[in-house]
Amino acid sequence: MDFMFLNKNDQVLLDFDARSEIIAKDRFFDNAQRYICADEETLLHRQALFADILKINGLSDFLCALSEKLTEYEPFITYHLKAANREERVRNILFPRIYIDLVSFIHTTLSPMMQSVTSESVKHLYALAKEDIESKEYQRIKKYYEKNTGKLNSIQSVTIGVNLNAMYAPKEAGVLSFNAEEFKSGDLLDRILRLDFAKDDYRCIAPLTIPEEKSPLQKNWEEEQLAFRGFHTLAPLTNFDRKLTFQENQQINYAILKAMGHALDSGLNHCSNRLLNYAQKKLLVYIKMQASLAFVASAISRIKIFQQKKIPLCFPKITPDRAFDFISLYDDNLSRVKEKNEVIPNTVTLDSDVCSYIVAGPNSGGKTVFLNSVGAAQYYFQLGMPIPARSATMPICDAIYKVSVEKQKASNSAGRFEQECITLSEILKKATKDSLVLIDEAFTSTSSSAAVPIAANFIAELCKIGAKCIFVTHYHQLCETDPKIAACGSRVDYLHAAINGEKRCYIIQKGKAEANSYAQDIAKRYGLL
Question: Mean pLDDT by 10-residue block, N- to C-terminus, for the chain (529 residues)?
Fold first, then answer.
């Protein structure tokens, strides 16, 4: 059983076209893409998991810790399943240790929580660990582990000697000793934080890193990030010391474990191949959960941001019709970078019998923020996560399509207007009655007299398909007398960004916007009327 599915072989995954547009440069949404789902049973299964995470103290910390363990174990388990030499024999000695520690960690940590658990994911995980704990094989492996635990657990670090030639280049190296404690960083800041200034053999003089030249793109990006945070570089960013790569670590691991095998092999009692194979097989069951648990851990981190900002969270009710009902829906991006009192939520209902909503109103009045908040909420919802709102009712969509003026860049073969036409044409070909279409200020690269008929025809075609559309525009003519919009009847409705005199409210309300009132207020303020 995968942690994010109910034993489903036909996992229903979606590639939402709007992923890169809804939240720009958001690594969470980028990594979570594979878990977007359109299966109601799976979404309810995930909602139960995240509901337990929200209400049971310690569960989120446990799942994050388990994710870290499995991430650490995964390359070890998957790349070294058979013993062939001393290095791999030492790894095989560690299999029982990993298995016992992992199963014990899961069982011991979850046992006090199980009376409060409702999600099948956590119940299944606990049942696996409980079954292992009670098995005869586990007891035999544990007995073997306890025989060798003193020898293995006592090794926390190794001291390596390196002889140098006349040019200070290494000519030979070897393990000098196995140590019962870890070495400590010799970095001055670390020592100050630890209030530890003693000198002994376990203080690191200098870490082993590899100097590497930064690419121009990386230098520019880092300088931009520093400038964004209010810092300015006095000198250009040049070289940096990076940590060892996975392959480099593997080479070092091989050498150290081979030396350990040579030194320890004769003093260890070896586990039978049958028990080793059993431990490996059982570990693979848990390792298969690693990717899903990594997603859960990243989702927990995102949820904690909302909790720290005191943003309300809810699990939307799933509706079979095409209605959206939000009470105090907060914008995802603003909620994470601003304080709660700086973010204005929206309470909006998108009726099931209305296909397209035309949203007009003043510039910077909250139209695009509302559009993005609906799109992000749909993503969270179809990941099975809570959304930033007090309550919500939402349908399951088979796709989200988003077009924004910022994304329509001219290509070698097409100008911006032509590129918009190509994109919208593709949406009309792909969209279904279960799709959500988000359009932000389309056709601004041409005149209103040319843009309005094209936009009206696009909206009319979407109404024929039955897709739900939110169409943000500054063309008030779309809200007035266009014949194609009028022919859609009740399948088209209107929203507007509210204003109070000259002041923007950043609230989206039902009804048509007053085309000239805001512009006249601005003109009067500067003495032009």
Answer: 56 48 65 86 94 96 96 76 52 77 96 96 95 92 72 73 83 79 63 52 64 56 50 44 61 68 56 76 91 94 95 96 95 91 94 94 86 94 96 94 66 66 89 93 78 90 95 80 83 87 80 66 61
DSSP-assigned letters across all residues of 258-323: HHHHHHHGGGSPPPPHHHHHHHHHHHHHHHTTHHHHHHHHHHHHHHHHHHHTT---B-PEE-SSS-
Give pLDDT, residue 512.
83
State the Cα torsion 252-255-259-261 to the nearest 10°: 100
The count of other CB atoms within 10 Å of the CB of residue 168 is 6
Geometric angle at alpha carbon 325, from 322 and 326, rounded to 5°: 140
Residue 62 pLDDT: 97
Separation between Cα atoms, residue 268 and residue 93, nearest integer Å = 9
pLDDT of residue 446: 75
Tokens of residue 79, six digits: 């790349």
Question: What SS3 state is found at 119?
Answer: coil
The answer to whether 35 and 4 are in contact (CB under 8 A) is: yes
Phi, psi dihedral angles at 323 (to 5 degrees):
-90, 140
**Helix/strand/coil for 501:** coil
Amino acid identity of residue 335, one-letter, is S
pLDDT at 236: 44
Q: Which two tokens stand for residue 251?
A: 């080479």
Cβ atoms 512, 494 nearer than 8 A: yes
Amino acid identity of 128?
Answer: L
For residue 485, with 0-12 CB atoms within 10 Å meaning exposed, 13-18 middle and 19 or more buried, which class applies?
Answer: buried
pLDDT at 177: 79
Question: Residue 120: exposed, middle, or buried by beta-carbon count in 10 A (0-12, 13-18, 19+)?
Answer: middle
Q: Taking the model in full, what pTM does it have? A: 0.77
Q: Which residues are CB-contacts of 173 (< 8 A; sequence separation ≥ 6)?
A: 160, 161, 162, 163, 255
pLDDT of residue 68: 94
Q: State how far the alpha carbon of 253 is from the alpha carbons of 34, 77, 87, 158, 338, in Å.
A: 32, 14, 9, 12, 45
How many residues make up the chain in this entry? 529
